[in-house]
Amino acid sequence: EDRVLSVLEEALEARIIDELPSAIGSYQFSHALIRETLAGEISLTRQARLHARIAEGLEDLYGRSADEHAGQLAHHYAEAGTNLDRLVHYSLVAGQQALDTYAFEDAVEIFERALEASDSNSMTDDLAALHAGLGASDAALLHTDEALTHIETAFDYYAKSGQTRLAAA
Known about the structure:
Blueprint: H1 2-13, E1 17-19, E2 27-29, H2 32-40, H3 44-62, H4 70-80, H5 84-100, H6 104-118, H7 125-140, H8 144-160, H9 164-168
Antiparallel strand pairs: 1-2
Helix pairs in contact: 3-4, 4-5, 4-6, 5-6, 5-7, 6-7, 7-8
């Protein structure tokens, strides 16, 4: 821990990273080019493994309040390309949070990313919920053709599986 703090202090002094004032112990690269350069030196496989470790570590750190950080967790699980269940869960939570705050473009991105990662031909409750969320997001942005496609997909699944309350919603 002391070694990590020493390295962080060196990076702060060299202005490679900045300390975020909003949260003690949180840092960001001082420039996106630094982040991109360092990330470019790491293989894609290693990057994915690091994202998985970050997601799992953050989930442990946040504990019961993990859903409050759903956007961050969904991002790391998507980049990791593993644990589809966790990706879908956090994407559903983050997407709904974005919808609730009228961040429709963000909601579209969140739902689309999870659907692309799912890439499944068999529909499930979670995939139907992603389609419903994406349909609502597209509708709010007046992307009517896309909205109808996703809403119909969710509706058909819910109707066929006898989930009339969700189909009506």
